[in-house]
Amino acid sequence: MENSVNFKEELQKKTERAERIIRRYLPAEEGFSQRMAEAVNYSMTAPGKRLRPIMMEEAYLLFLGRDRMAIEPFMAALEMIHTHSLIHDDLPALDNDDYRRGKKTTHVVYGEAAAILAGDALLNYAYETAFLAFQSNTDPAVIGQALEILGRKTGIHGMLGGQGVDVENDGIPINREMLNYIYRNKTSALIEAALMTGAVLAGAEKYELEAMERIGRNIGLAFQIQDDILDVTGDEKELGKPVHSDEKNHKTTWVTLQGLKDAHKEAEKLTQEAVCELSSLTGDGEFLISLISSLSGRKK
Amino acid sequence: MENSVNFKEELQKKTERAERIIRRYLPAEEGFSQRMAEAVNYSMTAPGKRLRPIMMEEAYLLFLGRDRMAIEPFMAALEMIHTHSLIHDDLPALDNDDYRRGKKTTHVVYGEAAAILAGDALLNYAYETAFLAFQSNTDPAVIGQALEILGRKTGIHGMLGGQGVDVENDGIPINREMLNYIYRNKTSALIEAALMTGAVLAGAEKYELEAMERIGRNIGLAFQIQDDILDVTGDEKELGKPVHSDEKNHKTTWVTLQGLKDAHKEAEKLTQEAVCELSSLTGDGEFLISLISSLSGRKK
């Protein structure tokens, strides 16, 4: 997929497909809990890249593709978990951000209490959605394996653990080891989850799952370093969120620790490693490889 | 079990047993996420009645008891979900309570940001813990059914939905229909989950699950009405939390709508209904019946 016009078209199709799948699983806005569902859907329908569900499905397609019914609720669930973390991250007690994905943040629109509960409801709804996979023809034991991965990568030893350490050290200079821990968990964990759950639902072997975990980790680190770079060099309108927030918050990032040039180099190196391992694992990952490659050059 | 000394002894043993099981599943306080694990464990180890896990196991025992390995992680998971809701409920943006279960609340000890993330981590950890049941010999499809119930009763159409509507109508007079919706979800949903997941893991039939759901609903409503009563008549020291908070917050409760006398009567009626249905469902539920009966007379 050297032809970048084709890649862009295909990416757009896949994003729209992910979007349709996600919307199919959102809670109905009715009854007494209508406003809570509205608050949940408000954040879920804000424009997003839907990278994690797309990656999950690509990983799934790489390793077979028996029963679509199991992968789709997992795709929606992963985007819900990601969005849950954004709602709570933006709260006044945490990053205190007013804009996200080009829209006002949930607590600005619905109030702080409702945003805390909407975030909780969305995290829980992610699992409720993933549990719908038990209604498919996929072996329930395999769904159990996918759930274990999703839970672990989301939790205290995954995304939430990374956020916790990040918040604890807010405004305090940190070393590379801790920065690596935060990135590995805050950002890589859900990308690892995307690639691993996709693969496991398609029947991948243990060594393949371990490879997908390493690939996800490298993609995530590259993605986060690119995020740090964009916070310095990016365009506020294009990003849909404020720039220079790291500097404002005295945040240690890869850029503040190693400088812009080194950050660029590292993001490219990590991307290259991920692409190489993916190529040697399967001959089939053309779109996924293009997707990964596109991330280290992204402008938003 | 008319002899209340025996009941108290047995209850204490079962509480200690639930306590041991819960502690076995708590996250280790180590590595970079140590403080987050500490914040999670801080709230989980505060003295609690552990009613929900006890009820879950009792329901489980009623309907068979093949493989203990599946029920135990679910017991711990349910108490984690309950405690998660307490951490977030106590936050400044919600009830703004400084004491809970006789200890300072999580946000007072760890700060607001850490308390939000600890609550998230605990909700997620509940699912991670329940997923451990896949390592038991219980049929994964049955575990899937138990997870579906747990997820639904916790989520936007369960506990969290009830809390959402409760918070939205904070300080606004509400009618009995809405009050019933809030109680049904905020309080009954997790008790329904306890009885239903316990029963389903032990192999109960569909009509038995429906009965357990009705029983759980009635127990929960009685429990919440008793909570309203204790907020007016209870002792702050014994309760471990402030009294008269409903009045202070202009909160509509069963007591403010119907008066104390009617509230007592309703709690007793609901309890009686639950006891009758349980007795007719199985001849075996002696301890569970004593437990239910004891709740409507409780002082804390």
TrEMBL record, chains A, B:
GO process terms (BP): terpenoid biosynthetic process
Cofactors, names only: Mg(2+)
Gene Ontology molecular functions: (2E,6E)-farnesyl diphosphate synthase activity; metal ion binding
Entry keyword set: Isoprene biosynthesis, Magnesium, Metal-binding, Transferase
Protein name (record): Farnesyl diphosphate synthase
Catalytic activity: isopentenyl diphosphate + (2E)-geranyl diphosphate = (2E,6E)-farnesyl diphosphate + diphosphate
Domain of life: Bacteria
